[in-house]
Design brief:
It contains eleven helices and two strands. The protein has a two-stranded antiparallel sheet. Strand 1 (48-49) and strand 2 (52-53) form a beta hairpin. 79% of the residues lie in helices and 1% in strands. The chain is mainly alpha-helical and 285 residues long. It has helices spanning 3-19, 21-42, 56-96, 98-103, 109-142, 150-172, 177-204, 207-219, 222-233, 238-242, 259-281; strands at residues 48-49, 52-53.
Length: 285
């Protein structure tokens, strides 16, 4: 496959994704989330609570935890959007016969798949990067809190989105567009829940329960990438303030990702893409 063919199909896929109504829904949800978070963060400093009035330092500490919560909301919006975009992009065109127009020409199926994957990755990853950086700026302007590694955080969120859309493409090569989106988002949620369960197991010293989260992050790296992003966004002293008994709190991460895990996530995406290419090559059009 030629690079020109892949880039052409990627551009067409990106243009088609922008035309869909789901994009406007994503934009509306993002604007609402940013506006609500700006209003909420602006009220943290000087807020009266049962423990007294929050100081600027305490407000920044709370903001770091809330930032992870909001970033999870953004990652969930991106997950739902890209998963339901990936299904119609591949399976929908196969069922409608639109793919036959392209595949009837001397264009390899691998080039079509690579172009569609690249276009969706640019859309989903670009959304996460722009929305994530906008949220970081909102928190910085309202509370004065700047994450220790915001660029790393948004990059990991983008990688999480790419991993999920790759899985959605694999599913869409075998089942209907709607089913592929539902299954992909369901697996995304199940992996996150398994990660929370594993975190509580680690906090309680139960190796069996902790292993649930470890295995889930190996089978589907979305939760592992998410936890790396949380660590990049959160205040370094947040875990010390929470205490060791609260290590299972779902919006705090106890460490950065290792190079080995990042390599595994990249290999996972490559393997799933390869399986998608194999499935797509055997699909009748």
């Amino acid at each position: 496959m030629t690079a020109r063919t892949v880039l052409t199909i990627a551009g067409l896929t990106l243009r088609e994704a922008v035309r869909r109504r789901v994009v406007w829904a994503l934009l509306a949800l993002t604007v609402v989330l940013l506006a609500l978070s700006a209003w909420g963060f602006s009220r943290l400093v000087g807020l009266d609570s049962e423990l007294g009035t929050l100081t600027s330092g305490e407000a920044r500490l709370v903001a770091s935890v809330l930032l992870n919560l909001i970033m999870f909301g953004l990652s969930l919006i991106a997950a739902i959007g890209t998963a339901f975009l990936a299904g119609p992009t591949l399976s929908g065109e196969l069922e409608s016969g639109q793919a036959l127009v392209v595949l009837a020409r001397p264009v390899r199926r691998s080039a079509v798949l690579a172009g569609k994957w690249l276009g969706l990755a640019a859309f989903g990853g670009g959304y996460v990067v722009l929305a994530g950086l906008a949220q970081v700026l909102v928190v910085g302007a309202t509370v004065g809190y700047w994450p220790p590694a915001p660029v790393t955080g948004v990059a990991l969120l983008a990688a999480q989105t790419v991993a999920l859309l790759t899985l959605a493409l694999l599913l869409s090569s075998a089942v209907s567009p709607m089913a592929s989106g539902i299954v992909a988002v369901g697996l995304f949620g199940a992996t996150w829940v398994a990660g929370v369960v594993g975190g509580f197991g680690a906090a309680l010293g139960n190796e069996g329960v902790e292993r649930v989260g470890t295995v889930s992050r190996v089978l589907l790296p979305t939760d592992g990438l998410w936890r790396g992003a949380m660590n990049a966004f959160q205040d370094p002293i947040a875990l010390l303030q929470m205490g060791p008994t609260d290590g299972g709190f779902p919006f705090l991460a106890d460490g950065a990702l290792t190079p080995a895990y990042l390599a595994w996530a990249a290999a996972w995406i490559a393997v799933v893409w390869g399986l998608t290419a194999l499935s797509f090559s055997r699909r009748d059009v």
